[in-house]
Amino acid sequence: MESVRYRLTEFFLIFIALPVSFAIDYPFIIKAFLAVSGFIYVIYVLLMVEGNKFKMAPNLQWRSFFKHVLIKLTIIAALTILYMWFTAREDLFHVLFQKPKLWMVILFLYATFSVYPQELIYRTLYFQRYASLFRSRSLFIFVNAIVFSLAHIFYRNPLVLLMTFLGGILFALTYDKTKSTLLVSIEHTIYGCWLFTVGMGNMLGFPS
């Protein structure tokens, strides 16, 4: 039986120390090694300690899920279009219309190599490993949004931190309700791909 101290140390290293270190200047090869090693450890814990099978959960409420995602996406789309219109009108849908092949490559790489690993760490691992450390569910979800935002600190962009904090709340609420890594990954992919589509890819490290 793992001690509370062990889980707190694990939490600190995965969700605070490692992301903050990526915002510090040191060789990329070391950062890559730490990131890959950390992800391997996460997979080991999920499989061997938490006993995950990585199977699609039965009886997922697909219609309800997409209904709620569509409502949230409509709000996100309206806000981001307005933001781009007033701050960077020339970039609004620039990649979609001017570089459609690049747009498709970006969406594929993002959905395949970024979203699912993030959700395994920040929702599946987080919810299964650390719920017992919090007495308040609201605080548990709030901290999840904080550490998810912290994972993007290497961008050194306050707007990115704000957006990922708000996104973290949405994703945490979805996972808390559905207990499905698949569904929350789909939601994450939809919102993230929209941000690239609308023209906000530059701030997220993607070419435009």
What would you note in describing this structure?
With 208 residues, the protein is an all-alpha fold. The chain has one domain (4-204). It contains 8 helices and no strands. The longest helix is centred in the middle third of the chain and has 31 residues, at 100-130. The termini are far apart. The relative contact order is 0.14. The mean pLDDT is 93.
For the termini, the CA-CA separation is 49 Å
What is the H/E string? HHHHHHHH
Tally of structural domains? 1
Q: How would a textbook summarize the main sheet?
A: none
Question: Could you give the topology of this structure?
Answer:
Blueprint: H1 4-22, H2 28-49, H3 62-87, H4 94-98, H5 100-130, H6 137-150, H7 158-178, H8 181-198
Quick tags:
208 residues; mainly alpha
Give a brief outline of the structure.
By secondary structure, the chain is mostly helical. The protein has one domain (4-204).
